[in-house]
Amino acid sequence: MYVECEVAKFGAGGLVIDTKGGVLGMANPTPRAAFIPTPLILRCLRMWRDLKCVPWLHLGLKVSSIKFLHSSHKEKISRKFNINAGLIVQEVSEGSAAKKIGIKNGDVIESLNGKCFPTTVELILLEIMLLRTCQHCVEKGGGLGSNVDLTVGLFQIRKEKRCTKKLTLNVSDDLEVIAGGTYPVSAKVKKNG
Question: Other C-beta atoms within 10 Å of 73: how many?
């Protein structure tokens, strides 16, 4: 989620408040002035209280909603592939499970475990779904270091085809570092003539 404000370069963020005085989340000092929504913060705090950690799935991906792409890029993807929603892969980490199953920069994740992402609000639901999956795994005895399978509905932009892939991810409470991503995110458009 993004806001139209400035957070100091070395600032720690702060509350994001709507025009009615409601707390929407916490500002995150990133180049695009992102914020962490309240439901996500609350779920993490409850997990910390109950599990003494916040387990997470290392996707090995940097993604963004198609809604945040430049308008000309969105139009190319919409016209050429009839895709108007989803998560566009911006970077794939070297050695990640995502790279091993063939996910590449520019591909579009249309669903995870059957859940689609038509709006930015649904991105919050994605994060909560991933946290809930980890919490369920830990509570059922899987623990940190265990594996979880996700079904990924994917549109492979270079091959111009939809497919479903199984992504096996590690449950961890470590920081994830995305190492890789050397290709620009772009829709390939064939020229007539």
Answer: 15
Specify if 191 maps to a domain: no
pLDDT per residue as tens digits for the range 88-129: 888 888 888 889 999 999 898 988 888 886 665 666 777 888
Task: Give CA–CA dist 34/31, Å, rounded.
Answer: 8
Q: Are residues 120 and 148 in the same domain?
A: yes
Nearest CA-CA partner of 1 in 88, 124, 130, 85:
124
CA atoms within 13 A of residue 62's CA, in its CB half-sphere: 15
Dihedral, CA of residue 34, residue 67, residue 102 and residue 147, to nearest 10: 50
Q: Which residues contact 128 (CB under 8 A, 6 or more apart)?
A: 39, 40, 43
**Which positions ≥6 away from 107 have C-beta within 8 Å?**
88, 89, 154, 155, 156, 157, 158
Do 8 and 70 share a domain, yes or no?
no
Residue range of the domain that includes 81: 54-186
